[in-house]
Structures are given as structure tokens and as C-alpha cells.
Structure prediction request, 363 residues.
Amino acid sequence: MADQPLVLGIETSCDETGVGIVHGTTLLADAVASSVDEHARFGGVVPEVASRAHLEAMVPTIDRALQEAGVAAKDLDGIAVTAGPGLAGALLVGVSAAKTYAYALGKPLYGVNHLASHICVDQLEHGPLPEPTMALLVSGGHSSLLLSSDITSDVRPMGATIDDAAGEAFDKIARVLNLGFPGGPVIDRYAREGDPEAIAFPRGLTGPRDPAYDFSFSGLKTAVARWIEARRAAGEEVPVRDVAASFQEAVVDVLTRKAVRACKDEGVDHLMIGGGVAANSRLRALAQERCEQAGIRLRVPRPKLCTDNGAMVAALGAEMVARNRAASDWDLSADSSLPVTDPHVPGRDHDHVHEVSKENLYP
Ligand code: KG4
Ligand code: ZN
Prediction:
């Protein structure tokens, strides 16, 4: 245990200011300050509001994480930060903070990929990731199937959404049903009391000639909205629970079907599900059922680790240190469209780390 890296991770790609601290694959602290309430009245995340909230929350959240973990900043082995993808202005706050702390403390800096972090976080819950692992990442900003044989260096996209992200569809349908934002948790709750087979909503991209691993939720979203409008126009009451359950079933049916198929086609026997939508109770249950039938081991982190957080960034940073990956350069910049195939942003010259004064400039 003693030689495991102690890493602090900073996540600011969307509306959560997350700071996590890990010791290898052990979680020591997971401090999150969310600006979700400030976005609620707009029905979605407002980038400028998010950036400002990150700026205000950053130092207090870092202090809280250090306190929670009971570690001194000078004892860290590295600082990791989400370099992308995400909202440019929001990412910039995290990257600037990470650089400042890393430089002041004389620690290596690791700019890492948000999507690879969502996968790597599972190590904190279920131990080292099997290699290879298939990952289904579903959140408000992304829906992808990724295959990784080494989370620090090899992430291969199998498929992705061609329009809306899965979480976005939950948020939009919740808005149509006047259930507030974010929509996922509330639809999940209503769906528990509804009939998933009450309404046959379309399953996007599941035709024989459709791409096997890509997703589409915009047709479903329109179908649900039209169905609700027709009820309202006829002066009929909308059966919210049945709509929620039937919509949710259409989403999770497609997600799990394609994920299991990708595992089978690639001969991969481990599937992990991450991202905010992985908190969905029906997705977890159906994935478990289908994986069992197919002889696939399912790994889903607990909901708090599925939504955006700093621990996932720290987890991937620790893996970068453990596998001797090159640290990032001091001119690391936020990249709002960092490709999923880049688990981190390696520096041109790893030695720069040693040029930094090892003096502790931060108490
Ligand atoms: O990963 P995340 O926290 O942020 C992004 O990177 O987007 O995911 C947030 C998304 C939102 O769209 C939210 O509605 C959805 O995850 N979500 C859920 C559930 N909890 C959160 N969707 C379905 N069921 C849930 N229980
Ligand atoms: Zn995310």
C-alpha cells in the first residue's frame, strides 16, 4: 500500500466542482460542490453560470477534500485534472487551478480525459479494471460504448449517440412532463410506479441495417413529446408514471442490448456502466439481467461515483502515476473536444517535473 500513488483530482467539465483524493485504488475523499440549483430554472446547464460557480467553489472544495482525506498537500504524488471534453470555460477553471497547485507544490500535473475517468472510477469500488473492459458511458453530455485494454493508453470508441445523449433525453422528457431538472432521477422515481409496457415507444437505431453500436434518442424524444401533446390536445390526463416507465424502458432496452452485443462480438466478458444515467435503477437491473444471461460480469459503481466527481479524475491520475505515464506540460490547456482516444494529455518532456522547486509553497 505504501508505494501506491496519492493523487488529488479536479473535475470541472460541467456543473459539478469535484475534488477527490485517492491512494492507488482507495478512495480517501470525494468533495463535490454542485451548481445544479442555479441552472434548474433554465432547464439545462448555463456555461457562464457554471464557470463562475467553479471559480467560487474551487479553493474551498480542495481544502475540504484535503481535510476529509486527512492528508497534507505536500504529500501528494500528483495532481490530475479533467482537460476535456466538456464546457470550455468550466474546464479552464479546473485546469488553471490544477496547474497553480501543481506548480506551487512541485508536483507532476496530469491532464486527463473525462470519459476515461468515468470508466477508471470503478477501480475505487470494484478493484483493478479487467483488461479488456467494455464500457457503456451514459450521461447528460455523452452516450458511448468504449473498449479499453488499458485505461491509461488505449480507449477505442465502438459507438456513440448520433444526436442526443441518454441523459439529455431524460432531461427533455422531464421538462415536457413538467417534472423539473435534472430529469433522470425524477423519471426514475415515477417509472417505478408505472407500466413499462403501457406505451410502445420506438427503439432508435435497432433495425437490421442500422449501425450496431450507435445510439439515437431524438426520435424517441419526439415520439414521447407527440404522444403527450396528443393527450393534452384531447383534454385527457397524461399518465405520467406510465409515460416515464415506457420512455425509460425504451432507453435502457437499447442501451443494454447494444452493450451486451458489443461484448459478445468482441469476446469481452466484463461490462462497466458509468456516467450519471448509470444511477438509473431500471438500467442497473436490466443490465444485470442481460449480462447474467450472456455470461458477462457487470460492474457499475455506486451512483455518487457515476455522476461527475473529482474522485474519478484522481483515480485515473493515480493510474497514470502507477503506470509511469508522462506528466502534462505546464502549458496544458483545456480542450472542450478532447478525443475519447486520448486518455490523457502527455507532455512533450516528462523531465519538466524535476525542474519545479520541491519546496512546499502551500501549507
Ligand atoms: O455524468 P453526469 O453527472 O453529468 C454529465 O457529464 O452529463 O450526468 C448527468 C445526467 C443528467 O442528464 C441526469 O438527468 C442523468 O444523468 N441522471 C439520470 C439519473 N440520475 C442522473 N438519468 C436516469 N436515471 C437516473 N436515476
Ligand atoms: Zn460526465
User: Anything to note?
Assistant: The chain has 13 helices and ten strands. The CA atoms of residues 40 and 181 lie 5 Å apart.
